[in-house]
Amino acid sequence: MLEAIDSEDAEPKYETSQDVEQEYKLIEKAYAEFSNANYELCLETLQELEKCNGTNNKLTHNRAVAKFYQSGCKDHVTLLKSLSEKADKNNTSASPIAQYNIAIIYYHRHMYQTAIETLMPLVNKLDDLEELIAGLVSTFMLRLLLVTNQLRKAAAFLEMLQSPERKSSLNLNREGLIREEAASSELSVANHENFQRAYKFLAVQTYVLNRKPIAVAEDGSAEYSALKAHQYYIMKDFQMAAKQLKKVNEIGAISEGNALNTCIANNMGVIHLRVRHYAIAAKFFQDAIAFDKHIAANIRNVSLYQMGTARTCEILYNLGIAMLHLRRPKEAYKCFFVPLKSYHSNPRLWFRISEACIMDHEMKMLEEDKKPIITSVVNSGGRKMYFLKPSKSITYEQEPTATESGPNLRFAALALRNALTLTTYYKSVFEMNNEDEASAGAEKENWRSVKDNNFCNPSRPISKNSLDNMLCAIRAAYSYVSLCLGDYACALEMAQELLKAEKLSDAHRLLAHMYAGEALIMMDKLEEARPHFEPTFVSSLNAFDFETKDWRVKSLDAAQNVVRYNLAVVMALQGDFELSINILSSCTHPIVAAKVMSLKTYLDIKMGKCT
Questions:
Q1: Cα–chain-centroid distance for residue 288?
Q2: 8 A C-beta contact, residue 282 and residue 323
Q3: 169-196: burial string, b at 16+ Cβ within 10 Å, e else
Q4: Which of 321, 346, 317 minimizes the C-alpha distance to 456?
Q5: For a tag on the chain, would you pick the N or C end, based on fewer CB atoms within 10 A?
Q6: Which string of b and e fits 149-158 if b means at least 16 CB within 10 Å?
Q7: Are 97 and 119 within 8 A, CB to CB?
Q8: What are phi and psi of 324, to 5 degrees?
Q9: Do 329 and 356 contact (CB within 8 A), yes or no?
Q10: In sequence order, what E strands does 366-508 have?
């Protein structure tokens, strides 16, 4: 955005009215040339203006902006350097427009927090700014709050803007936003200055994302149609959301490019992910990546505004989740590893990448389990001789690193440690925020004091229930990985912490007992392990909790058989072979069939029935 130049901005060389009139003509000419995209002529006019009346900060700023547009909006580094020299935070005379433009650059480079920090000094003095600049700053701050998932703070900021006490052109009330004419704007200014339409759209979007009832009035544009599709999605009307996205596609085919196609394909993938059409969802995400590829592959050679539309990281995150559901852990791991570099403080992402590592390990173990342990049986003098397959010794210290050869348990342990540390910290912050809100009460009128639990960017803010569920899932996975790696003390600690959870699902309760019991067995604490394998507690579990989980134990009967088998193992290790055999006779579910046969063979050998 160009900055208005006044004759008072520098010491004039000429004081005649003719010189002043000539100066204003040059200013108007430069602005008209810039608006018509004649940037070379604009620069020449600015040079004439400098000769006429000397240089000043605004003239230097406008020359830098014109050169930026002349470069096809690609040389944002030079523009940022030029603006930063003129807009030092400690300089009280720094130009508001320069600060605003710097924030715009950071926004399109996906440096949202830096953009907020740059814009905040202007937000703090909104009432002192000119009307146009105040509108631009307010609208842009609202956009930044939404893009960083600070939804409640955005709602509070919007409420402040709509306050009737404020002397601003943005005090548009909620009723004004839902009128059909609110979607249109007939201002006779350039598109980059037409903030009224952007403000109205962002205001409606704020209501939608905060799940407040509001009618989204379509005006034939792709943005309002897409917002209506999002509203259907939030209301869990996935069929209508998909239909609405098709309408967006028809609208956008006329005027929009790959950025809209990327958005539509990604959103269609998210819808199919929610209805468990994982293969279709994966196909849509792959299409979205293909649309986004032309920007991501040439990120240094595209314009600043095209750079801002790149969404490969977020789409790869979605594709990784679809690949997990499709039981393709290697592909999921590759998908998660890219956004991990940008969103390294996201505990969900660390947990998801550990799931890919665990799934890859489990699939390898299942392949091994399919191979019979007993290779042959020979009858010799009325006694049976069993020949077993040779066991493979695994040396985890020699296991390759994550970046070298894909998913492995060592990296899963590292990822789970990071996920647990982050989630534990965010939980303490979450609870502290709730206490602050309860104690503050009506004092929390300032929008800056509003708290948003947006710990998992780029995901939406997280609820207390979701945070607790994630913590349980992380501890269960951490216990399992520790068992596989031979760290039995850590496995026991995680299982015991899991059993202390306030709201523990029945599926996780079963896992906690199994992992704690196995860790105690490996630590040769059989008496302590035995209570974890009492089959009576399984009958109190909810069958629905098993039937809806995407794992091997899909019924209470399967859970009962797993617990009984583990109890039989404890009895065998304690030397009570007869009781162990009796327990094994009740283990009839296919999920433990192979292991039951192996244990019976072991017991026959120990009891002298075979060699």
A1: 17
A2: yes
A3: ebebeeeebbeeebbebeeeeeeeeebb
A4: 346
A5: C
A6: bbbbbbbbbb
A7: no
A8: -60, -45
A9: yes
A10: 374-380, 383-388
Structure tokens, 53: 């009346």
pLDDT at 89 over 70: no
Three-state DSSP state, 481: helix
Q: How many CB atoms lie within 10 A of CB 79?
A: 23
- Residue 453 phi/psi, 5-degree rounding, is -85, 60
For 18-27, 373-382, 481-490, which range has the lowest pLDDT when averaged over its residues? Answer: 373-382
Q: What are the φ/ψ torsions at residue 175 (nearest 5 degrees)?
A: -65, -35
Handedness of CA 502, 503, 505, 506 (dihedral sign): positive
Residue 227 token pair: 């917002």
Whether 208 and 230 have beta carbons less than 8 Å apart is answered as yes
Tokens of 137: 């700053």
Q: Do residues 515 and 479 touch, judged by C-beta distance below 8 A?
A: yes
Tokens describing residue 95: 């130009």
Question: Do the beta carbons of residue 151 and residue 212 sit within 8 Å?
Answer: no
CA dist., res. 284 & res. 270, Å (int)? 9
Mean confidence (pLDDT) of the chain: 81
Query: What is the SS3 assignment for 504-521?
Result: CCHHHHHHHHHHHHHHHH
Q: State residue 154's pLDDT score.
A: 93
In the structure encoding, which two tokens stand for residue 445, read together? 């009128």
> Which of these, 24, 55, 50, 29, lies nearest to 41 by C-alpha position?
29
> Is the model more confident about 177 or about 341?
341
Q: What is the pLDDT of residues 366-413, one digit of tens each?
A: 776 655 555 555 555 555 555 555 544 333 444 444 444 678 999 999
Q: Which residues of 367-392 are buried (b: 16+ CB within 10 A; e: fewer)?
A: eeeeeeeeeeeeeeeeeeebeeeeee
Other Cβ atoms closer than 10 A to 74: 18
Q: How far apart are the first and last CA of the chain?
A: 87
User: Of 18-32, 37-51, 133-147, 461-475, which range is least confident?
Assistant: 18-32
What's the pLDDT at 193?
A: 46
The half-sphere exposure of 47 on its side-chain side, counting CA atoms within 13 A, is 7
CA distances from 420 to 348, 432, 467, 490, 599 (A): 10, 18, 11, 13, 36
Asked if residues 323 and 332 have their Cβ atoms less than 8 Å apart, the reply is: yes
In this structure, the number of other CB atoms found within 10 A of the CB of residue 319 comes to 27
Q: Is the dihedral of CA 478, 483, 489, 493 positive or negative?
A: positive
Encoded tokens for 241: 């959301």
For residue 187, what are its two tokens? Answer: 């201002």
**Which whole-number Å values give the CA distances from 135 to 116, 161, 196, 576, in the listed order?**
16, 10, 8, 80
For residues 290 and 359, what is the distance between their CA atoms, to the nearest angstrom? 27
Q: Which residues pair with 388 in a beta bridge?
A: 374
Residue (of 480, 461, 463) closest to 416 by Cα position: 480
Q: Which residues contact 246 (CB under 8 A, 6 or more apart)?
A: none
